[in-house]
């Protein structure tokens, strides 16, 4: 599955980048077993923001799939979305969590709404360089969810809603923890989200800010 492959690639890049940033004399071992100076223990995060994108599909009925007369398109849509997750920081540069998401937007010819259950992998691939680079995050989300496109009244011509049914959901993004306190980090964030099923495809971008609580250090 390509979404899983992308997530695995992000993990590999995070590990390799951190290792490369350290000199050979340091005998860098990934910081496993060491007391973290940046992130550790419990992680709880939420990332709300402006949702932009489009969705197109068909009613989730076999006789209506890929039939032009039943196609529903949202057009370019704008709205609100958020991710929320909980998990743990395995090292100062790697966190893992599970959570959910909501997405809703209104377009020229339709409205979209839906949600997803997601597994989240996040790395800080330049952590080993030190300084401000320690706070640049790269993350990936993979999971499953559902999305519905309701055609606008003007666009509706006896059409049913487009329904993704049980869809694969995946994507990734970047964030930079610009402000930090003892346990909280505040960061601007940008994320790409893909919904894909036999009956519907959606491409969306979530741009906003996130707040993350780290149980440690401290």
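^ Assign residues to that structure.
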């Amino acid at each position: 599955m390509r979404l899983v492959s992308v997530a695995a690639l992000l993990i590999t890049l995070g590990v390799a980048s951190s290792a490369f940033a350290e000199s050979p004399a340091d005998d860098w071992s990934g910081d496993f077993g060491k007391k973290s100076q940046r992130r550790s223990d419990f992680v709880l995060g939420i990332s709300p923001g402006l949702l932009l994108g489009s969705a197109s599909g068909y009613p989730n009925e076999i006789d209506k799939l890929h039939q032009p007369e039943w196609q529903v398109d949202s057009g370019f849509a704008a709205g609100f979305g958020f991710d929320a997750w909980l998990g743990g920081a395995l090292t100062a540069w790697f966190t893992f969590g599970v959570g959910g998401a909501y997405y809703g937007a209104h377009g020229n010819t339709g409205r979209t709404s839906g949600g997803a259950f997601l597994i989240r992998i996040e790395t800080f691939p330049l952590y080993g360089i030190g300084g401000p680079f320690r706070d640049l995050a790269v993350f990936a989300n993979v999971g499953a969810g559902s999305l519905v496109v309701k055609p606008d009244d003007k666009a509706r011509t006896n059409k049913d809603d487009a329904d993704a049914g049980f869809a694969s959901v995946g994507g990734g993004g970047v964030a930079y923890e610009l402000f930090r306190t003892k346990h909280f980090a505040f960061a601007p964030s940008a994320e790409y989200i893909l919904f894909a099923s036999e009956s519907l495809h959606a491409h969306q971008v979530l741009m906003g800010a996130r707040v993350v609580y780290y149980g440690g250090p401290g």
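Residues 1-30 have pLDDT under 50 and may be disordered.
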